[in-house]
Structure formats: structure tokens, C-alpha cells
Design goal:
two-stranded antiparallel ribbon, 3% strand, Enhancer of translation termination 1
Length: 401
């Protein structure tokens, strides 16, 4: 079996890189299945080739950085299968081996970066922790060696850990809620406390914000793409803080992200406008009974999204999928803040239309999204109510006759 990785040229002599994986069918020692065609596939073997000056394939040994680039590219393009993950893991392992050989003893940033990327690519918590610890040591002993990209990698490691930690907590809490729902009970204060922000989370998100601050301060030329990824990572974590008890932490993170976003020309950037709007929408959802503050956040979010949609359409001559998706979410929230029944129905219908537009523009991303499930659920409830009303009218007409 062979697999090609299309890479940007790392140098004039490198045109293409190819990964070949060879498997030998065999059996594990305790396999007694007479029909088994091979359950122990062995190790994946990888070789690398490039074209020489005569156009012939020639094996070569990639550098540590080239191996890391291959691993990242493969992790972004490979289907989630055991063999696909094995190839990705093997590439990262080869890159780590090379970085261990080539990194200076006083600067293991290459090795640490590879660990962090491995941890992010296939959710390896130990790799994230080890890479982060190396950068912490480097920042303490040799702070002058810490460059912009290093601080951004620190942020990538810490947010990666935050997301893994919070997902585990959320999963446990969701299981608890399902059990309590069956018993028609609500979570106790003690149970809610287990869902609160943990000390490690607090330390990690402070470390994340500090790393972003240092990255922004250490470069006269902002690496815009990498910084955006960092901001989106923080936003991904914020979205996981979905209970009112998290509100103060969400506020801290949202305010910090807002400051970072404003360092860019965000008013001319649909993605940054929508990022800022998504944070405000989420913050609003945790406010509970403070209706006036919720309405203010909704109004601010709406302006950001309308500007984002308009700007995107002017720049690309087409509608903005993310903008319409967020607008649908916002309009659903707004419908819950209204008192007049006619206004509630009108706002809800606006949300449905916005969602239909978003789905039309990006059906794959929205087919099984939380927003889609919510819209479908509400649409089903609305249809049931309409059918009940029709039945009642028919009954009334029958009585009159």
C-alpha cells in the first residue's frame, strides 16, 4: 500500500515525498479462528523518496522539521482509522527521534513543539504535558530563547490540555444528568461543585492568556494565522464552559479575547467579527435571569454579525456560512427574552430561516450540529402544537354543527 503526501517544496531538490506502508498478515499468539485472514498486521514500515535530477525515485532521510510537517499534513488528511493513526503516530515518533539528535542541549524547543503537535493531533495528554513542561523550563532558564512561535506553542499546549480536561468533566456530568433525569431529580450543590472550574484549569487558562500576551508583545510582525488559531483555541475551550457557575471565568476569557481581537483590524475581518460575536452569545447564555444584560449582549452580537455578513458578501460575492449559523443561534436566544407571543414566534421564524441559509451554505458542518438538533426539536414541537390547534378547531366545528 502506498500513500502520497503533497507538501510545499522544502527546498529546490525536494519535489514530492511519499510514504509507503508495508504490512504482513499474521496472527496473534492466541488466535484460534480458522477463518481469520490475519489479525496481527505487524509494524507499519515507512520509507521516503524524492525525485533525483534524472526524475528517478531516490530514498532519503527527511529532517526533523520535514518529518513534523509530514506528520501534521497526514493527521489533517488521513481518515480516522487504526492504520491511519498508526502512520501519523509513526511519523511523529520519527520526528521526535530526529529532534532529539539535532536539538541543542540548552534549547529543546523543536522536540517540545513536536510533542505538543503530537498531543493535539491525536489527543495524547502525556505529550502535551511533557512538551509544556519543556517550554516552562526553557522560559525559566533561558527566557531570551523564547520566540513568538514558542509562546504560541505554549498556548497551543495549555489550551489542548484545557479542552481535554473539560471534555472529560463534561462527559461525566452529562452521564450524571441523564441518571438524575431518569429519577426526576436535579443535581445537588456537591455534584455541581465537581463540575466547577478546577485549580489546574484556572492555572492553565491563565498560562494560556499570558503566553498569548507574550507572543503578541515579542513580535513586531504578528504571525496572524498562528495567532488566530490561538484565539480560536481559547474560544473552543470557552464554549465548553456551559453552566451558569462558569460565568465569571467565561467573562475573564471573553474580555481577554476581546482585547486580543482588537489588536487586529477586526472591524474589517468577518472571521474576527464572528469570533467576537460568538463569545458574547455564549456569555449571554450563562446570565440566567438578568434579562437586561442579556438583551444588551444580544444587541452587540447582532451588530457584529450583521457587519460580518455584509463584509463577507462584499469581499467574496457570496453569503457567510458562519455568520448565518451564529445569527440563528442569536435569534433563538433573543426569542427567549421576549414577552409578546407574536414577537416570540416572529423571532423564532427568523432563527429558522437563518439556520436554513447556514445549512444551505454548509450542510456537512451543520447536519448533526447542536444548532440543527435544537432547530429540529423546536420545529417538531411547533408542528405538534399546530396539529393540536387544528384538531381543537375541528372539534369545535363539529360541536357547532
Amino acid at each position: 500500500m502506498s500513500k502520497r503526501l503533497a507538501e510545499e517544496e522544502a527546498g529546490p531538490s525536494i519535489r514530492t515525498k511519499r510514504i509507503r506502508s508495508a504490512e504482513k498478515d499474521g496472527h496473534v499468539s492466541d488466535c484460534n479462528d480458522s477463518e481469520c485472514e490475519g489479525c496481527d498486521v505487524g509494524d507499519v514500515e515507512i520509507s521516503f523518496v524524492r525525485k533525483d535530477e534524472n526524475g528517478e525515485d531516490q530514498t532519503f532521510q527527511p529532517s526533523a522539521q520535514e518529518l513534523l510537517s509530514m506528520a501534521l499534513n497526514e493527521s489533517n488528511t488521513t481518515a480516522v482509522t487504526d492504520q491511519g493513526n498508526e502512520i501519523v503516530r509513526r511519523l511523529f515518533d520519527l520526528a521526535l527521534e530526529q529532534f532529539e539528535k539535532t536539538d541543542p542541549k540548552d534549547d529543546r524547543s523543536g522536540y517540545a513543539t513536536c510533542l505538543v503537535e503530537l498531543g493535539r493531533a491525536i489527543d495524547v495528554e502525556e505529550s502535551l504535558r511533557e512538551g509544556l513542561d519543556i517550554f516552562r523550563g526553557l522560559a525559566k532558564k533561558s527566557p531570551l530563547l523564547m520566540k513568538t512561535e514558542h509562546w504560541l506553542t505554549v498556548a497551543k499546549a495549555s489550551t489542548g490540555l484545557l479542552i481535554l480536561i473539560r471534555k472529560k468533566l463534561n462527559s461525566t456530568f452529562e452521564e450524571l444528568l441523564e441518571e438524575l433525569e431518569e429519577e426526576d431529580e436535579s443535581p445537588s450543590e456537591e455534584q455541581l461543585k465537581k463540575y466547577s472550574i478546577k485549580r489546574e484549569e484556572l492555572s492553565l487558562y491563565k498560562e494560556t492568556l499570558d503566553a498569548i500576551e507574550k507572543a503578541l508583545a515579542s513580535s513586531s510582525h504578528l504571525p496572524t494565522k498562528e495567532v488566530r488559531f490561538g484565539l480560536q483555541d481559547i474560544q473552543s475551550y470557552v464554549q465548553l464552559l456551559d453552566h451558569p457557575q462558569h460565568y465569571n471565568h467565561v467573562s475573564v476569557l471573553t474580555d481577554a479575547l476581546g482585547r486580543f481581537i482588537e489588536l487586529f483590524s477586526y472591524k474589517e475581518d468577518p472571521d474576527l467579527l464572528s469570533l467576537k460575536a460568538s463569545l458574547l452569545i455564549h456569555k449571554q447564555s450563562l446570565l440566567g435571569n438578568d434579562t437586561e444584560k442579556q438583551k444588551k449582549l444580544c444587541k452587540d452580537s447582532e451588530k457584529l454579525l450583521l457587519d460580518a455578513n455584509k463584509l463577507y458578501k462584499e469581499e467574496n460575492n457570496k453569503e457567510y456560512p458562519r455568520g448565518w449559523e451564529l445569527l440563528a443561534m442569536l435569534q433563538l436566544s433573543q426569542s427567549n427574552l421576549l414577552d409578546d407571543e407574536d414577537e416570540i414566534v416572529k423571532k423564532y421564524e427568523e432563527a429558522v430561516e437563518s439556520f436554513k441559509m447556514a445549512h444551505k451554505l454548509n450542510p456537512v458542518a451543520l447536519d448533526n450540529s447542536e444548532l440543527a438538533n435544537m432547530i429540529n426539536m423546536l420545529s417538531g414541537e411547533a408542528q405538534e402544537e399546530e396539529e393540536e390547534e387544528e384538531e381543537e378547531e375541528e372539534e369545535e366545528q363539529g360541536k357547532e354543527e
